[in-house]
Amino acid sequence: MSWDWQVFCQDTITQEVGQSCFGKNGDITYLDWMLSAWGWTVSVALLSLVIALVLGAVIGTLRTLPDRPWIVRLGNAWVELFRNIPLLVQVFIWYHVIPAIIPAMKSLDSYVLVVFAIGFFTSARIAEQVRSGIQALPRGQRYAGMAVGFTTFQTYRYVLLPMAFRIIIPPLTSEAMNVFKNSSVAFAVSVAELTMFAMQAQEETARGVEIYLAVTGLYVISAFVINRIMAFIEKRSRVPGLIAASGGGH
Fold first, then answer.
1. Would you write out the chain's pLDDT as a tens digit for each of its 250 residues?
2. What burial letters (b/e) apply to 179-200, b meaning 16+ CB within 10 Å?
3. If DSSP codes are grouped into helix, strand and coil, which group holds residue 241?
4. Residue 60 in contact with residue 42, Cβ under 8 Å?
């Protein structure tokens, strides 16, 4: 089998190989297209991750509130709902069902809807990790906050959450990497990310091996970068004697 990496220098319209792999005067090569698709993938993943972290932190915290059984039940319902429905089904619900129920959302681009879908799906997983992190802390820390006169909010803000987030950085790293992989479902609602690029480009060029190898490499690079960022955060925020050293930071 012969490989032809010049496929990335081909013009997407004429299929001719140009002198440069980057298009000029409005022309677009497959390399241009792939890098643009990578940009869409990264933006979908990062925005989804922001939504997931914010919602996950809030829901996970609510599930540990003392003497608030109804709030805890609502948090549990959120987790069970979004964690137990397949992500692709949730994407289609956001794309087809919710705009039909809420007409104002019909004006939203599919890019925005898929970000919400991935963000809400991942928030349920992060909420479970936040809950586990808070409950893993010694009870004395909550009592210490109460003893100095902190309100419940202040106890979580200044005592419990800072320590809990340090504990859950390793599983959060896995979730952050999963978000980049899960962003591939965006192709189902016509977001021009890497998976859609790969499917269309290999049909047009018949060079599926080269296309999919390049796309796989970009996914690997994306996941590796987020892994290194999270490892750096873990190393800088580690509390000696409380959190065991993780191999991910070396």
1. 577 778 888 888 887 877 777 877 778 888 999 999 999 999 999 999 999 999 999 999 999 998 889 999 999 999 999 999 999 999 999 999 999 999 888 889 899 999 999 999 999 999 999 999 999 888 888 888 888 888 888 999 988 999 999 889 999 999 999 999 999 999 999 898 999 999 999 998 888 899 999 999 999 999 999 999 999 998 888 776 665 444 444 3
2. bbebbbbbbbbebbbbbbbbeb
3. coil
4. no
Using a 10 angstrom Cβ sphere, with 0-12 exposed, 13-18 middle and 19 or more buried, the burial of residue 96 is: exposed
- Given a contact cutoff of 8 angstroms between Cβ atoms, the answer to whether 44 and 183 are in contact is yes
Computed on alpha carbons and rounded to an integer, the radius of gyration of the chain in Å comes to 22
